[in-house]
Amino acid sequence: LSLPLIKSENKEIIxxxxxxxxxxxxxENLRLExxxxxxxxxxxxxxxxxxxxVYDLYGLNKEKKEIIENS
Length: 71
Fold this sequence. Notes:
By secondary structure, this protein is an all-alpha fold. The protein has helices spanning 11-28, 33-58, 62-69.
């Protein structure tokens, strides 16, 4: 399995990572549990988006994705 390079076409991955970093920093300054929970849900959604983008980058089919997610 060769490692694909992240190119400008894959900027969604970079943007999602940048958003996670930004949101993680934002959590540090929050006090309300509801706000923290909302940000954590956004981070989880972004992580899932990154997972799917990476699966596509490697050309993984549904079966292989399920193997990875269930391990």
